Amino acid sequence: MSTDHHRTPSWDDWDYPEGEWMLSGECPVRTNRTLMLEMAARVLFPTVLVFSVYLLIVGHYAPGGGFSGGLVAGLAFVLRYIAGGDAEGAAIGSRIRLRPPLLVGIGLLLAVLAAFAPVAFGNPVLSSAMLSVDVPVLGHVDLVSSLILDVGVYLLIIGVVLDLLRSLGSAIERDEREARR
Amino acid sequence: MTTLVTLPVLLPILGAALTVIGSRSARLQRLVGIVVLAAVSVVAAVLLVAADRTGPVVVELGGWPAPVGIVLVADRLSALLLLISTLVTLAVLVYAIDQRITDYGRDTASTTFHPIFLLLSTGVSLAYLTGDLFNLFVAFEIMLFASYVLITRRTSASRIRSGMTYVIISLTSSLLFLSTIALVYAATGTVNLADLATRVAALPPGLQTVLALMTVVTFGIKAAIVPLHFWLPDSYPNAPAPVTALFAGLLTKVGIYALLRTQTLIFPQVGPSTVLLVIATLTMIVGALGALAQNDLNRLLSFLLVSHIGFMLFGLAVFDARGAGGTALYVVHHITVQATLFLVSGLITRRTGTVSIDQMGGLAQRAPFLAILFAIPALTLAGIPPTSGFVAKLALLQAGADGGPFTRIVAGVVILASLLTLYAMVRVWIRVFWGTAREPLPDADPADELVVGTAATSRPMYAATSGLIVISLTIAAAAGPLSAVTGRAGTDLMDRLPYTTAVLR
Question: pLDDT category, B445, cuts 50, 70, 90?
């Protein structure tokens, strides 16, 4: 860490990221943290994730789908990263215990298998089937087999966003810290 | 049978998924890459036989019929190009894997190289097979995004700079392509190629000309025809040898394929196209003269690539069945030989430590086998009988001789450009392989992916290069049946009905 981080901040640079790309969670100067953003991120995080799953499911008939759902879920992680920085980024990785490339790979695999699956039933590639059921609480529900493909896309996009956070976020912060040393 | 058509697109994506998931096991990645590409080659061969016997194989994705649904079409032309492209990709993959083993002392796993390589193959396959204009755009994007990664990964700042030229030019051409699709859709209400074949003919002639010109410019940038070629010699030579070989072999040829498909199917015309003939002449001459001025081996090969793009354009410009068939045959020959030459150039650079022809010399004494590996594709490119280059050029010249007085003159330019190619290759031969042997130069930039001057080359690298030469010689040996197939492919292209009736049942 450089020494200028240990100087007492004046009142007008509390919210000011100094040279770093984003404010790091392990920042030694406590006053440099943006508490409002951190609290907001914690409150919003689960809500945004639920909303992303909603987008994923309604995507068959309404605006939404795997791509936009995945992007929204990815944005939830981006919000945490902006609020907490590098340490938060590392925490995301340890919490879901998956390397982002693995998430990308599983998503891609799921999507390709969903494309191939109809062939096993004698239908053309990428064709879809629908299952209509009446569920007590939810009412009439149409389950479309192409949802599996959308789930694959959803996972893939989350993986890509997490990988971006890793390679263009925390990796750049780390490089800058090492360059300063 | 129709499901087979989707395999060349879906299998590499499946392979990419598996190689990402198994990104800690180099052995698994290697196995998946080679097995997938081998399987796609087999599928392409089956498709070629089926398309040649019973006409185009069409699959309607999701069971939605054309023109509303998306179709993949494997006719003679696309199946043939798919087969040769996949074989070349497979050889380049073997070379690339082994180069990595040789450079790092062991096989290293990577989350980028194998998946991206397979995605590039997906893009190429989709470009050949797709039956609509928008998916052609998607195919180009898959291909280009993969190529952006391959051209800039693990490299130095100066090479990133030249990679940026490539990225910016490609993005510009993609933007132009997208605008063209929007205009085509606005004018006709469809993007299905077979449907466009009838609908575009009903448009006013001026609008037809504008749309045709826009496609020529779009694909002309990708195919590097003069004067849209300037980016190619600045970007391709700076990548590692296998990547350059793959780009030079496949990407420009996919541009030529797109030109051939759209110009014959959507914008057909009667008799030779004067504009295309002039552009083809310029491309042949500028490329060949540019090659003579180069001292960098890879830049020289890049200019020759530009020159030979002109040959393929010439076959298209004649606008008859023989010309189109000649172009198809030339593409098959050129994909193989250009990839081979860049792989050999990689082997030479590893021996000599430089790409500068001035600083090489006497390599024939130190590496006689390498000299043979260079000589065969060099003579093939120049078109010396009995190589595949001769067969392909003969097909083009025959088409030119039948086309009329102007095409006969351009056919003369083909011979001139061939002689210039031969001259350029002989110069390389004399200065690189003859004379007194020189010591290899040290690696100027040890940090990047290009390891040079170590002479560390392994048998599989030579085997992959030799394999490509064997393919090239096989093309020459099977010239009879092959040119019969490309001849029928040319007839199909000009006739248009086999394609449109198969798609719009």
Answer: low
CA atoms of B164 and B166, how far apart (whole Å): 5
Any domain includes B186: no
Residue A128 located in a structural domain: no
Query: Would residue B233 count as lying in a domain?
Result: no
Q: Tokens representing B265?
A: 């199917």
Residue B352: per-residue pLDDT: 84
**Higher pLDDT, residue B446 or B201:** B201
Q: Work out how many domains chain B is built from and give that number.
A: 1
Q: Is residue B393 part of a domain?
A: yes
What is the number of alpha carbons within 13 Å of residue B462 lying toward its C-beta?
15
CA distance linking residue B234 with residue B501, whole number of Å: 43
CB–CB contact B10 A105 (8 Å)? no
Strand partners, A143: A131
Within 10 angstroms of residue A177's Cβ, the number of other Cβ atoms is 14
The whole-angstrom distance between A114's CA and the closest CA on chain B is 11
Is A18 among the domain residues?
A: yes
Contact between A125 and B10 using a beta-carbon 8 Å cutoff? yes
Number of Cβ atoms within 10 Å of the Cβ of B271: 12
CA separation for the pair B194, B492 (Å, rounded): 13
- What's the pLDDT tens digit per position in A8-36? 555 555 554 444 444 444 555 555 667 78
- Beta-carbon neighbour count of residue B54 at 10 Å? 10
Please report whether residue A126 resides in a domain.
no
Residue A15 domain boundaries:
3-108+149-180
Chain B positions touching A120 (Cβ under 8 A) are none
Alpha-carbon span B190 to B268, nearest angstrom: 18
Q: Residue B451's domain spans which residues?
A: 272-495
Within a domain: B125: no
Res B302 pLDDT > 50 = yes
Distance from CA of B357 to the nearest CA of A (A): 39
Task: Find the helix or strand (DSSP H, E) in which A143 lies.
Answer: strand A139-144
- For B386-420, the pLDDT digits (tens) are 899 999 999 999 999 988 889 999 999 999 999 99
- Amino acid A23: pLDDT: 43
Which tens digit of pLDDT belongs to each residue from A63-94?
A: 989 999 999 999 998 888 887 766 555 555 55
**Residue A134 belongs to some domain of the structure:** no
Q: Considering its fold, how many domains does chain A have in total?
A: 1
Instruction: Say if A102 is an interface residue toward chain B (CB within 8 Å).
Output: yes
Spell out the long-range contacts of B415-419 with Cβ–Cβ below 8 A and sequence spacing 24 or more.
Answer: B416/B284, B416/B285, B416/B288, B417/B284, B417/B285, B417/B287, B417/B288, B417/B307, B417/B310, B417/B311, B418/B382, B418/B383, B418/B393
* Token pair recorded at residue B43: 């599928």
Q: Where are the alpha helices (DSSP H) in B385-496?
A: 388-403, 405-433, 459-477, 479-495
* pLDDT reported for residue A126: 85
Please enumerate in sequence order all residues whose Cβ is within 8 A of that of A19, keeping only pairs 6 or more positions apart, or say none: A176
Higher pLDDT, B494 or B66: B494
Q: HSE of A142 in the Cβ direction (CA atoms, 13 Å)?
A: 9
Buried/exposed code over B74-96 (b: 16+ C-beta within 10 A; e: otherwise): bbbbbbbbbbbbbbbbbbbbbbb
Nearest neighbour of B21 by CB, restricted to A106, A119, A126: A106
Note the pLDDT tens digit of each residue in B424-442.
Answer: 999 999 999 988 877 777 7
Whether B3 has its CB under 8 Å from any CB of chain A: the answer is yes
CB count within 10 Å of CB B392 equals 32
Helices (H), A15-145: 35-58, 66-96, 100-120
> B294 in helix, strand or coil?
coil
Q: Does A36 contact chain B (CB < 8 Å)? A: no
Structural tokens at position B130: 């797709």
